[in-house]
Structure formats: C-alpha cells, structure tokens
C-alpha cells in the first residue's frame, strides 16, 4: 500500500504541472482576444536619464468628450549647459501586453515652433523601472498591473540649445476603450528622468461635454483627490479646485517615480 501511495503521489505532480501550464495558455489566449488600445500617454521624457536638462513647467489641458478626449500639453525645459541632441519620447499606456494600438485621432508635436515627426518605438526597461499596463481578461477589467518589459513610445531626436529654454507643445486626441469603459491615463512619473524636480505642473479637466465635473473621478498615483496624501507619496504640494464643468490641479516641486500617473474615470 505504501508503494502504491508513493507512485500515485509521483504521478500527480506532473499532471498538476501540465494542468497549470494549460491554464496559463488559456489565460494568454483570452488576453490576446481582448481589446488592445492606448488608454493614454505621458509627458515628453528622455529615453535615458539626463542630469543636465530640467523640466520646469508642465501644463496639461484635458477636454473630455462623449467618445474621445483631447489633450493639449505645454512643457518648458531648461538646458544650462552645452547644446545637446537627445532621443526623447512620449510613453504610452496601453491595454493588455499586445503591441496593437488604436490610432491617435490627432497627433501634433512642436519643438520651439517647429513641427516634429515622432515614430512609435520601444526600448527595454531597466531593472526597477515599472511599466504601468492595464489588463483585460475575457472582457473583465482587472485593474493596473506593473511589468518589467518593453516600454512603447512615440520617439524622435530633439535638439536642446545650450543656455536656453526649449518649449514643447503636444496636442493629441484618443478614443475611449468603449462606451462602457470611460477611463484614461496621463503618465507624469517618467518626468523624473529629467534633472531635478518638476517645479510646477498644472492639470485642467474640462467636463462640460459630459455633464459636468460630478460625472468623473480623478486619482493621482495612490490616493484620491480630496484626501490627504500619504507622507510617502511623491506629490509634495497639491492644490485642487472644482467647478461645475472644470477641475484643476496645481502641483509644485514634484519628485516622481515611473509609475506615477493621473487616472480619470467614472465615479
């Protein structure tokens, strides 16, 4: 009896392993069948850390509409040293791990008044840098997860003259995932790859086309607006103003980590 028991125990181990593998493949297949769309993107950042140029000002205006949202960004970058040319990009926040994306309805980027063409690309994330993704499994939302994997970007070379301020404007439109999934993201955490803290960030959210500010919920990183941010949070000073059709935030002296983001969704 002891021999039979031991044999059956040895047989059950590979069967369990096989069942586990089959289950994982089923989950992957289910993920691949789910929608794969861009849920948002972030402020321009160097693809590799730069300790010379600082991001002094970021203004993000978000206009919510019924089927899409419109974003206009203005960034001020200061280069106190010699002129340099860098690879810079806009990080993309996308659904699932598939590399198929919805198309931007409008996508215009200007550096010091000159329109620049950015192309979609990727680079491996370094150890410790987490890529925020959103998983859809069988059509069900499972919330944000973080993967150390490739990061997708809109990237290009950009020249930063020495001893001058460079002004970058970014205007784009994106559709929502679906009528039933009103959710979008703006990644500001990768701004920490520039030198120093971000001196000032302004967000404005225009809700006039969706019935007013009472119809949305905003979330910075790990705490809801209106609550006191925990001491460990990177938001040092947050000023929030809420009106009937508009919500605004001002953040000062911001130290960021790659996962920091603003999420806008239904309450």
Describe the structure.
- This protein has about 270 residues and is mostly beta strands.
- The protein has one domain (about 35-265): Immunoglobulin-like (Sandwich), CATH 2.60.40.
- Helices cover about 10% and strands about 50% of the residues.
- The strands form three sheets. Strands 1, 2, 5, 8, 11, 13, 15, 16 and 19 form a nine-stranded mixed beta sheet that branches.
- It is globular and about 50 Å long.
Distance between the termini: 61 Å
What is the overall number of helices? 1
Instruction: Please tell me the total number of domains.
Output: 1
What is the CATH fold-level name?
Immunoglobulin-like
Instruction: Kindly provide the name of the CATH class.
Output: Mainly Beta
Radius of gyration: 22 Å
Order of helices and strands: HEEEEEEEEEEEEEEEEEEE
Structural class: mainly beta
Approximate shape:
globular
Task: Tally the beta strands.
Answer: 19
Query: Judging by the overall fold, what is the CATH architecture?
Result: Sandwich
- How would you characterize the largest beta sheet? 9 strands, mixed
**Low-pLDDT residue intervals, each spanning 5 or more residues:** 1-13, 16-36, 96-101, 124-149, 222-234
